[in-house]
Amino acid sequence: EPEVTQTPSHQVTQMGQEVILRCVPISNHLYFYWYRQILGQKVEFLVSFYNNEISEKSEIFDDQFSVERPDGSNFTLKIRSTKLEDSAMYFCASKYGTSPQETQYFGPGTRLLVL
Amino acid sequence: DAKTTQPPSMDCAEGRAANLPCNHSTISGNEYVYWYRQIHSQGPQYIIHGLKNNETNEMASLIITEDRKSSTLILPHATLRDTAVYYCIVRVYNQGGKLIFGQGTELSVKP
Fold it and tell me: Which residues pair with residue A57 across a beta bridge?
């Protein structure tokens, strides 16, 4: 069964450093998402991406964040200057279309720790 | 999207049916009910969804009341591997697709 993959599984970085989290969505999917989950809290929507542009973003997704689909298979989330509060699990998700049957498939997540 | 209310936690004996309730009293006519689960910090996993009819798949059954103000997810024979946080999400299907997760119900299946 096709699946969403994410790399790395864990990332430790120093405050102020840039990080890039990578995702490979399911190959024929057209809609891509990033979510995050701070330890012990609920899963929060960050951004959705379709047709090579951001379709929606949350208040969390400020100027420090950016997304890109550089090569038609990868989908990346960049945090320009990490803060302690960016420590969280980051989940990528994808889906094919917008019908009710088209559900989002989530990756296993990247655990980001900012020191 | 309509707000949902779920109990924070439930227990279930292994092999018994787990019935997880969700209240969505402000649901509107074009909103679907989706259920996802998250096993121990893994990525959320889709379980089932429905509009107004009851639905069943290989994982679970979804019972939606006639007035659509509440629903119940049924895991017919819960196993230890079904221990997870279960999320009930209500949304219009043709929106951009973001999922708004609440706190969910933490289901513990006990031997």
Answer: A47
The owner of tokens 């450093």 is A17
Residues of B whose CB is below 8 A from A99: 93-94
B97 with A45: Cβ contact below 8 A: no
CA atoms of A46 and A63, how far apart (whole Å): 12
Option in A42, A91, A98 nearest B97 (CB) = A98
| Nearest-angstrom CA–CA distance, B111 and B109 | 7
A63 vs A72: which has the higher pLDDT: A63
Local structure of residue B5 (DSSP, 8 states) = B
How buried is A86 (Cβ within 10 angstroms: 0-12 exposed, 13-18 middle, 19+ buried)? buried
Q: Kindly determine whether residue A42 and residue B101, on different chains, have CB atoms separated by under 8 Å.
A: yes
Tell me which residue of B98, B108, B106 sits closest to B38, measured CA to CA. Answer: B106
Average pLDDT over residues A36-49: 94
Considering only CB atoms, B41 lies closest to which of A89, A95, A105, namely A89
Helix residue ranges, H only, chain B = none
Q: Locate tokens 């429905």: which residue?
A: B50
Q: Tell me how many helices (H) and strands (E) chain A has.
A: 0, 11
DSSP state of A86: G
pLDDT exceeds 90 at position B29: no
Q: What percentage of chain B exceeds 70 in pLDDT?
A: 95
Give residues 6 to 65 of B whose Cβ lies within 8 Å of A: 32, 34, 38, 41-46, 49, 51
Reported confidence tier of residue B94, pLDDT bands at 50, 70, 90: low
